[in-house]
Amino acid sequence: MKSTANILLFAILLAMVSCNNRQQAETTDIASPVSVEDIKKQSIEKYLNTTGTAKATQEVTLSTEMSGLYQLQNNPATGRPFKLGDRVKAGQVIAKLDDQEYVNGIAIDAQKLNLEIAEQEYEKQKSLYEKGGVTLRELRNSEVSAKNAKYNYDNGQVRLAKMSIVTLFAGIITDLPYYTQGTRVTSGQPVVTVMSYDKMYMEINLPEKNISEIQAGQNVIITNYTLADDTLKGTVSELSPAISTETRTFEGKLIIDNPQLKLRPGMFVKADIIVARKDSALVIPKSIILSSNRGKVVFVVEQNTARERRITIGLENQDYAEVISGLKVNERMVVKGYETLRNDSKVKVIK
Fold first, then answer.
1. What pairs with residue 42 in β-bridges?
2. 95-58-173 Cα angle (round to 5)
3. CATH code (residue 219)
4. What is the CATH number of the domain that holds 128?
């Protein structure tokens, strides 16, 4: 009777072990869902990142050089008085100062008439000198009188020009202090600030360790958080060969192309300096690379089985990395669902 009970117990245990093994086998055979991409060759760039403030390449604040009654002029393009944001051309008059007493003191018409008389007298003396009618001294005296008359007339023109505030280059009005029309302003008062920023520049400071990577002429990608969908192009224009002993950095300057004026003076921007580039390389997302005690690994799919591949990295940037060894073109690389995979795991490819 005891022997029968033992046989029955053994049979039950054997059934339990068999069931457990079958469950383990079923668990082992469950395929993990993954998404894959074919590995292709493409270009990759290595960047050196820096930040700074974009500044206008040309900027000037024009101030009064004399006192007078303020008269803001009309913009020929709009027919209305100049205002902030207006585009201006080189040589445009933004404002005038009216001071009739000052104009009368210059007496420009009399200066012009005196110049004409002095020049006529000089031409007459030259003709007489050629015929022996006057001495060389008399000829020289008439020449001096003509030159002095010309200097006086030119000086008068310069003094009159001080009554007009004239732009030096084409640009945009970025500051226009308000003065009531017809009120007197004194000398030295700011009238208008004009900036030209279709090209901009940015001063940078780069770590000493990167001095061998950076060269003048390298291309730069410029971004700003307010221009999320736009990138601008630039170049490295200047580099200092000296290292700061305090910050262990060296200075440089970037020129930024801004033809549509999307970037504004004073904006804080990010600059990605392209220090290296390959046009045909095996490139994969950095996010799928796993680190283990054996190095960097990724997974590829072969016959519904995940295969672990150790890889060697070359050029890399924030998002992508070049694979020097460990992968081949057109292999199916796991890009989703790789987190829980092990070598030889069964997988099911889904889109």
1. 281
2. 35
3. 2.40.30.170
4. 1.10.287
- At residue 153's C-alpha, the angle toward residues 149 and 159, to 5°, is 145
Q: How far is Cα of residue 327 from the mean position of the Cα atoms in its chain?
A: 37
CA-closest candidate to residue 336, choices 37, 32, 39, 35: 35
pTM, whole model, 2 decimals?
A: 0.74
* Tens-place pLDDT, residues 99-115: 999 999 999 999 999 99
Q: What percent of the chain has pLDDT over 90?
A: 79
How many domains does one find in the chain?
A: 4
151 and 175 fall within a common domain: no
Q: What DSSP designation does 296 have?
A: E
- Tens of pLDDT, residue by residue over 106-157, are 999 999 999 999 999 999 999 998 888 889 999 999 999 999 999 999 999 9
Q: Please tell me the distance from the alpha carbon of residue 147 to that of residue 97, in angstroms, as a whole number.
A: 30
Eight-class DSSP state of 343: T
Q: What is the residue type of 57? A: T
Domain hosting 167: range is 65-99+163-188
133, burial (CB in 10 Å: exposed 0-12, middle 13-18, buried 19+)? exposed
